[in-house]
Amino acid sequence: MTGNLYVVSGPSGAGKGTLLGLVLQRLGPVWLSVSATTRSPRKGEVEGVEYFFLSNEEFDALIAVDGLLEWATVHGERYGTIRKEVEHRLGQGIDVILEIDPQGAFQVRSKLPQAVLIFIAPPSLDALEQRLRIRATEDEASIRRRMATADVEMGLRDRYQAVIVNDVLEDAAEELYRYISGRA
Ligand code: 5GP
């Protein structure tokens, strides 16, 4: 018995986290993977909840033991999926969701071709910039960097099995829920 593997990507600020939060409550047993990262925690983020916050040396050590299913550098910091946590749950028949960037998504697909790739898009790049500014978690340079990445990421959305445009939150959540529950 193997669980389903869903990979959710989309530009920073497109609302992936909020959408997944709404949908997770309604799905059956499903596990949202907690990634490792070298970036510093934001205010309110808790070790082991949003991420495992690692030093560069600790991240290198995980790579050296093949402990990451995939990893990528995003906005100058490294992020990776902890292999054994994911494989363990899939092996138990538990569905797993990875919220990772497109570089990581395509690495996962090449290793585990059964992975279902879902892209969450903002209604437009302008709308995305507004959201990032309202969220106010990033400084100006970081917003500019995230917008440049978003432009590149939007160009990759056709390589995903599903694209969900997050314009009206409740509608997008319903679409995501139906897509995932319809495949389970
Ligand atoms: P943030 O710093 O805003 O939490 O995340 C920045 C970006 O890193 C997002 O696009 C997010 O999806 C991506 N990300 C988070 N965890 C992982 C991971 O384990 N692997 C990869 N490749 N990207 C990740």
Reported by name, the CATH topology is Rossmann fold
Number of helices: 7
Global structural class: alpha/beta
Biggest sheet strand line-up: 2-7-1-8-9
Tell me which oligomeric state these chains represent: single chain
What overall form do the CA principal axes indicate?
A: globular
Mean pLDDT: 94
Instruction: Report the span from N to C terminus.
Output: 13 Å
| Corresponding CATH architecture | 3-Layer(aba) Sandwich
Instruction: Return the string of H and E elements.
Output: EHEEEHEEHEHEHHEH
Q: What's the number of domains?
A: 1
Q: At the first level of CATH, what is the class? A: Alpha Beta
- The amount of beta strand, in percent, is 15-25%
Please bin the fraction of helical residues: 40-55%
CATH homologous superfamily - what is it? P-loop containing nucleotide triphosphate hydrolases
List the defining traits of the structure above.
184 residues; alpha/beta; Rossmann fold; 5-stranded parallel β-sheet; 4-stranded mixed β-sheet; 9 strands; globular; binds guanosine-5'-monophosphate
Overview of this protein structure:
- The protein is an alpha/beta fold and 184 residues long.
- It has a single domain, classed as P-loop containing nucleotide triphosphate hydrolases (Rossmann fold, 3-Layer(aba) Sandwich).
- The chain is built from seven helices and nine strands, in the order βαβββαββαβαβααβα.
- It has helices at residues 16-24, 56-64, 83-91, 102-111, 125-135, 140-154, 169-183, and strands at residues 5-9, 30-32, 35-37, 51-53, 68-74, 77-82, 95-99, 116-121, 162-165.
- Strands 2-7-1-8-9 form a five-stranded parallel sheet, sandwiched between helices.
